[in-house]
């Protein structure tokens, strides 16, 4: 490519981004203008096939500074993805293909970014996934899985703690094929970063075990950027950061100031840019045919590479029929037939165990039949019980602690990073089912990543133990109260709180089967008996009647550890002449998806319904008339004493059940499922 | 102190912690045993007065690895705070003074810790507070404010991203009087940290601008620790970290393993420890009188120092009557008389403005009358509008960007760190009112710190702008949905969503007056008209009838930007023959605290009530029979189009109001305030 054409192409990227933001009259032109040379240098050497954006071994590109999305849409357009100039013109408009931040459901976009620090952490997950699959499936002569993970990030991403967590882990794990570009433009929304961010980012990344390269003239020196990429690829046991000194809004009259960060350029500014760079100032969204032609060569090379890859994979499937079939199945996004038979089932004769332990048993069984299961824990492995027997840790081989084919990740005390890395793992494809453990209360540290999983429809699984005051002595700093109300209020999240072994298996069944919905599994520290009347099938509906009283005068709806207590309470009420049914409702999201008829059979008209859950009551009115819950913080004491103190005992529930029956006596009562209308879903 | 007595004292600390955990049969003995020498070296040179644990210029001590609380209780006992041996024996028992993690309401405990990374970040806030007050009130010869902030932290704290945020800022700000001790014991719950945490912590802290000192034999070399403390004090423009290589569970048969981290020592292990160290193996909780005597000297010196300080402060008040009176007032925790008159009020003649702008106006007014107001923003200052005119940035003087008497903190893109630093600022005392701004959706990044503010009753203020889909084009990654439901479900949080200028002033009034409850102020990006019928006084009740219809057949309860839309809807309904009242309910927490009579007057029996808020509906059934909300993610488009798309328009609300009226026609209807019983509060 001539350097003249190269410069023209780079300025085309800049101006398309400027025009895109300008047309929307909203968005962020500055970073695209500064990073255009790096984008050009990177994308012209990437393995990508716009005709098949899901080719498993494509290079991954993550725009962690997601507000610079006009750059990404521009690249997708120029390289031949299904983004037209018209799509660019619809930037940030209702129902367009080009929303204000990258959204993973769109073609060519790997992960949803915008909330700062998430993308670079997703990239760590994508790189782990590549390494794990490469070390699992590749054979001599069959480099089936072999791609780089590239990421752009800015100062904002580096200020966020989540990036610290993920980058520290990436260094520890020695992810040599992760290459990140630090857009060091020294400008944030508040102005020059000298006011708030003066750390030495390179030194910090080195302290994590990264290699750091620098290009000090990245506005203009494309060759230096390309050379740095080549050098980064040689670093095979360390992630690399290429620090690019850039000028935000390069070329603009306001370049190098905060004003080009998040506002469209003024007309006269756009004009002078186009004139300066030899573009027609009266024409917007212009691309020379030579520029299209050049970039289309990259796409063609990618398409050819995929063809060769397809042939290689066919050969592989003949030579390694078992592994080949397995990988082929995974690429189709299918689970192994009959995998669910591995899930344990229980009868009341089985002994009482904590649901964290039931989870461990389930994981142990399914890990054997699901090679796509990749799990870990934020350092609480012996408490979360998330590591199955004989699991291999995902570790750099030279540590002697595991290898990069391992499927158990030691996340360290890094919940937020873990959440984003789990998202990245699942976003890689190949049906990866990623889970991560911590205490339920500390899922909150990672909740912004859970939210993004929900928004971008990534079915990760949070194994969240120590799910209530039932954890006892650690006290209120560790006892979740608002946590389930919070997660249930996030659209598109399953929040399972199983009551026994069968319900725990049901939770795993639905969580693993899910293709678009993440799950949180809230599990006890304390023992739970195996219930009469539970089954995997029934619990898989999200809610079901576990104790059916004839002519019930009251229904208790409960979850998790409160189901057995409610069953005991129902017996007390029965003895008092109040026939009481008990509904176990381990997951509201799944229950909501059942037929109206079924739901109405569980929560019928005419009977008062009381919900019982030893956490915040918010949200329970959807399924009950009255709520018994804990709208205060817990306390530090042995668990049994706490349940007594707060009256989450058979007696305490029965007392409230009776009050409920008396309160509604003689009143016409509709099921809470009846509503004149429903919220917007 | 003889080295023999010193050793005896240190072993006494170790054994008291071991016995405390042993008696509870629950807790963490390992870190106390490893850190006892550092605790001894530190506390014997600290400025503390057990007789007045709230002396303003005491040295602060934060145990960021809060699980090691048995160490802290032991120290508090030995140094003469109001913790008896009996209290130690009640460790982790119901209603004891010694819960499982440090809780700030207990004597001598500065901040609530346990959730990792929070404490060290609180310490940054405590150190900022000290510097800010020192630079505000001290005069030559009057070193009124002059203390160090000390902090213990472990590997877990350093793995958490929050510590990265806070420590980076501490380095930037040059907090020379912050001295942290890194308990580098190489053990986490999962085992040796080689499996998950191999970064160079010292180098990382240096990259933030810290000074790092090391003591490689911190199990035994008390002198080296003392020397390091002395050296750290000489570093006046950098925070210092003293890295202590220690042995977790020092002396135990299982020392240096994960098994001593979180489980009591076995009886035979305790026995050998006591024998080895010359204690009676049959005696628990033993303290030699010489040890008590020695530590009591520190307390005596502290009491004397406070006496001298009191005399100095009296002299100061004479010499600097204005500043003296101001500081005296602040030390009493009182606000200036009549300060609330500074809050702006509005009439419908005033123009429509966004509530983020109304917040800016309010802050500008109260900053002048409240020297205790210390604010900032997580880099979004021009969007959050949190910086009042003429504010001085809190910056190291040598930067030329401000000084350490400044009251505006450039937090950078560090929401979680900001939250914990705000908590630390307020925990310092002197009535500091700390606030911090970000987008409402990114308060979620810092929610674990908000939760700790609620738990430990710290009245910080989150200024949370861009509070709904009303932010428009940035799209669903930035649009809060579950956020208010989440915060309202946390016990002890005010969640204000004001509808206009008077309500914004009411929110500030209550937030600033609060002594025990943190606030989140959810504010719009888009303009809001000044409403007929609003007032600071009425809004200060948390909820009130803003439109009273005669013989109302429907009540609409709304917040924020939906109040005006609901008022318009009420007009449409009125025209359809449905007289409709409108209730503005800007804060549920405050409304809940009103008398039953008042609440019932706002939400009476017999009238159907519909809530309207363009966010998740969870929690609204407490105040309404039907909920109109957004239980899905938003979208990227101009705000007006989004409100139309989701029908949050006068017509959309009126339609649902009519459905509600029809649905309940002829049915007996109780106010949702009626319940047979209430959740545990």
Automatic annotation (TrEMBL), chains A, B:
<dbReference type="Pfam" id="PF02779">
    <property type="entry name" value="Transket_pyr"/>
</dbReference>
<feature type="binding site">
    <location>
        <position position="383"/>
    </location>
    <ligand>
        <name>substrate</name>
    </ligand>
</feature>
<dbReference type="InterPro" id="IPR005478">
    <property type="entry name" value="Transketolase_bac-like"/>
</dbReference>
<dbReference type="InterPro" id="IPR049557">
    <property type="entry name" value="Transketolase_CS"/>
</dbReference>
<keyword id="KW-0485">Methanol utilization</keyword>
<comment type="function">
    <text>Catalyzes the transfer of a two-carbon ketol group from a ketose donor to an aldose acceptor, via a covalent intermediate with the cofactor thiamine pyrophosphate.</text>
</comment>
<keyword id="KW-0460">Magnesium</keyword>
<feature type="binding site">
    <location>
        <position position="478"/>
    </location>
    <ligand>
        <name>substrate</name>
    </ligand>
</feature>
<feature type="binding site">
    <location>
        <position position="155"/>
    </location>
    <ligand>
        <name>Mg(2+)</name>
    </ligand>
</feature>
<dbReference type="InterPro" id="IPR009014">
    <property type="entry name" value="Transketo_C/PFOR_II"/>
</dbReference>
<feature type="active site" description="Proton donor">
    <location>
        <position position="415"/>
    </location>
</feature>
<dbReference type="Pfam" id="PF22613">
    <property type="entry name" value="Transketolase_C_1"/>
</dbReference>
<feature type="site" description="Important for catalytic activity">
    <location>
        <position position="28"/>
    </location>
</feature>
<feature type="binding site">
    <location>
        <position position="442"/>
    </location>
    <ligand>
        <name>thiamine diphosphate</name>
    </ligand>
</feature>
<keyword id="KW-0576">Peroxisome</keyword>
<feature type="binding site">
    <location>
        <position position="356"/>
    </location>
    <ligand>
        <name>substrate</name>
    </ligand>
</feature>
<feature type="site" description="Important for catalytic activity">
    <location>
        <position position="261"/>
    </location>
</feature>
<dbReference type="GO" id="GO:0005634">
    <property type="term" value="C:nucleus"/>
</dbReference>
<feature type="binding site">
    <location>
        <position position="261"/>
    </location>
    <ligand>
        <name>substrate</name>
    </ligand>
</feature>
<dbReference type="GO" id="GO:0006098">
    <property type="term" value="P:pentose-phosphate shunt"/>
</dbReference>
<comment type="similarity">
    <text>Belongs to the transketolase family.</text>
</comment>
<protein>
    <recommendedName>
        <fullName>Transketolase</fullName>
        <ecNumber>2.2.1.1</ecNumber>
    </recommendedName>
</protein>
<dbReference type="GO" id="GO:0046872">
    <property type="term" value="F:metal ion binding"/>
</dbReference>
<dbReference type="InterPro" id="IPR033247">
    <property type="entry name" value="Transketolase_fam"/>
</dbReference>
<feature type="binding site">
    <location>
        <position position="261"/>
    </location>
    <ligand>
        <name>thiamine diphosphate</name>
    </ligand>
</feature>
<feature type="binding site">
    <location>
        <position position="28"/>
    </location>
    <ligand>
        <name>substrate</name>
    </ligand>
</feature>
<dbReference type="GO" id="GO:0047896">
    <property type="term" value="F:formaldehyde transketolase activity"/>
</dbReference>
<feature type="binding site">
    <location>
        <position position="474"/>
    </location>
    <ligand>
        <name>substrate</name>
    </ligand>
</feature>
<dbReference type="InterPro" id="IPR005475">
    <property type="entry name" value="Transketolase-like_Pyr-bd"/>
</dbReference>
<feature type="binding site">
    <location>
        <position position="185"/>
    </location>
    <ligand>
        <name>thiamine diphosphate</name>
    </ligand>
</feature>
<feature type="binding site">
    <location>
        <position position="156"/>
    </location>
    <ligand>
        <name>thiamine diphosphate</name>
    </ligand>
</feature>
<dbReference type="InterPro" id="IPR055152">
    <property type="entry name" value="Transketolase-like_C_2"/>
</dbReference>
<feature type="binding site">
    <location>
        <position position="67"/>
    </location>
    <ligand>
        <name>thiamine diphosphate</name>
    </ligand>
</feature>
<feature type="binding site">
    <location>
        <begin position="114"/>
        <end position="116"/>
    </location>
    <ligand>
        <name>thiamine diphosphate</name>
    </ligand>
</feature>
<feature type="binding site">
    <location>
        <position position="185"/>
    </location>
    <ligand>
        <name>Mg(2+)</name>
    </ligand>
</feature>
<keyword id="KW-0106">Calcium</keyword>
<feature type="binding site">
    <location>
        <position position="187"/>
    </location>
    <ligand>
        <name>Mg(2+)</name>
    </ligand>
</feature>
<dbReference type="GO" id="GO:0005829">
    <property type="term" value="C:cytosol"/>
</dbReference>
<keyword id="KW-0808">Transferase</keyword>
<dbReference type="GO" id="GO:0005777">
    <property type="term" value="C:peroxisome"/>
</dbReference>
<feature type="binding site">
    <location>
        <position position="466"/>
    </location>
    <ligand>
        <name>substrate</name>
    </ligand>
</feature>
<dbReference type="InterPro" id="IPR020826">
    <property type="entry name" value="Transketolase_BS"/>
</dbReference>
């Amino acid at each position: 490519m001539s350097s003249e054409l190269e410069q023209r192409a780079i300025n085309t990227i800049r101006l398309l981004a400027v025009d895109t933001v300008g047309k929307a009259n909203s968005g962020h032109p500055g970073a695209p203008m500064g990073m255009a040379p790096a984008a050009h240098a990177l994308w012209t050497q990437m393995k990508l096939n716009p005709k098949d954006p899901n080719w498993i071994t494509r290079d991954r590109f993550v725009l962690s500074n997601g507000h610079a999305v006009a750059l990404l849409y521009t690249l997708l357009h120029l390289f031949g993805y299904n983004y037209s100039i018209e799509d660019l013109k619809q930037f940030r408009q209702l129902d367009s293909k080009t929303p204000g931040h990258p959204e993973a459901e769109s073609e060519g976009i790997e992960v949803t970014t915008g909330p700062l620090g998430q993308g670079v952490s997703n990239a760590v997950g994508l790189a782990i996934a590549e390494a794990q699959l490469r070390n699992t499936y590749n054979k001599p002569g069959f480099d089936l899985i072999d791609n780089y993970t590239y990421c752009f990030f800015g100062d904002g991403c580096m200020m966020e703690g989540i990036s610290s967590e993920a980058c520290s882990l990436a260094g520890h794990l020695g992810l040599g094929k992760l290459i990140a570009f630090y857009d060091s433009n020294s400008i944030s929304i508040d102005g020059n970063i000298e006011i708030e961010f003066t750390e030495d980012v390179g030194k910090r990344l080195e302290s994590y075990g990264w290699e750091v390269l620098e290009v000090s003239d990245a506005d203009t020196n494309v060759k230096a950027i390309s050379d740095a990429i080549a050098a980064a690829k040689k670093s095979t046991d360390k992630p690399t950061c290429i620090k690019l000194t850039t000028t935000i809004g390069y070329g603009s009259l306001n370049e190098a100031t905060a004003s080009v960060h998040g506002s469209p350029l003024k007309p006269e500014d756009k004009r002078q840019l186009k004139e300066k760079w030899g573009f027609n100032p009266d024409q917007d969204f212009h691309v020379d045919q030579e520029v299209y032609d050049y970039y289309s060569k990259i796409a063609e090379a990618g398409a050819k590479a995929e063809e060769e890859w397809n042939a290689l994979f066919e050969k592989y499937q003949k030579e390694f029929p078992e592994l080949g079939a397995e990988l082929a199945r995974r690429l189709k996004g299918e689970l192994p037939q009959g995998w669910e038979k591995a899930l344990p089932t229980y009868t009341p004769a089985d002994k009482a165990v904590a649901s964290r332990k039931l989870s461990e048993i389930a994981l142990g069984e399914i890990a054997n039949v699901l090679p796509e299961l990749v799990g870990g824990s934020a350092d609480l492995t012996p408490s979360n019980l998330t590591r199955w027997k004989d699991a291999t840790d995902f570790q750099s081989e030279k540590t002697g602690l595991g290898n990069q084919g391992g499927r158990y990740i030691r996340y360290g005390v890094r919940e937020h990073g873990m959440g984003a890395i789990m998202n990245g793992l699942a976003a890689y494809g190949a049906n990866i089912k990623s889970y991560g453990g911590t205490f339920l209360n500390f899922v909150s540290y990672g909740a912004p990543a859970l939210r993004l999983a929900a928004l971008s429809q990534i079915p990760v699984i949070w194994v969240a133990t120590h799910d209530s005051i039932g954890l006892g002595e650690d006290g209120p700093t560790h006892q979740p109260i608002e946590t389930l109300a919070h997660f249930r209020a996030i659209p598109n999240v399953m929040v399972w709180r199983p009551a026994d072994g069968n319900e725990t298996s049901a939770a795993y069944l639905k969580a693993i089967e899910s293709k678009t919905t993440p799950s949180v599994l809230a599990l006890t520290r304390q023992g739970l008996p195996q219930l009469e009347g539970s089954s995997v099938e029934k619990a898989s509906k999200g809610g079901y009647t576990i104790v059916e009283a004839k002519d019930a005068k009251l229904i208790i709806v409960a979850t998790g550890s409160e189901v057995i207590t409610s069953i005991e309470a129902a017996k007390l009420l029965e003895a008092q002449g109040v026939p009481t049914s008990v509904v176990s409702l381990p997951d509201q999201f799944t229950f909501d998806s059942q037929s109206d008829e079924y739901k109405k059979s569980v929560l019928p008209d005419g009977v008062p319904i009381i919900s019982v859950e030893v956490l915040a009551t918010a949200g329970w009115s959807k399924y009950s008339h009255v709520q018994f819950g804990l709208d205060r913080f817990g306390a530090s004491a042995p668990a049994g004493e706490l349940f007594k103190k707060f009256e989450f005992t058979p007696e305490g529930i029965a007392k409230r059940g009776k009050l409920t029956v008396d309160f509604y006596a003689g009143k016409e009562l509709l099921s809470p499922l009846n509503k004149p209308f429903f919220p917007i879903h």
